[in-house]
Design brief:
By secondary structure, this protein is mainly α. It contains two helices and no strands. The longest helix has 8 residues, at about 35-44. It is elongated, with a radius of gyration of 14 Å.
Length: about 45
């Protein structure tokens, strides 16, 4: 059984930050794994 590609991507779980567990808003060309909050802690 083949799944419609649009339905496949809609059914994926939301991206989650591995550091704090916060759900992240995905962006088409972003490969970041951590949320902005955790990234800002690393820079300081």
């Amino acid at each position: 059984m083949l799944i419609n590609p649009v339905e496949f991507f809609r059914s994926l779980p939301k991206k989650e930050c591995p550091q704090c567990g916060q759900h992240m808003e995905e962006q088409a060309e972003s490969y970041l794994m951590e949320c902005d909050h955790c990234l800002s802690k690393k820079e300081n």
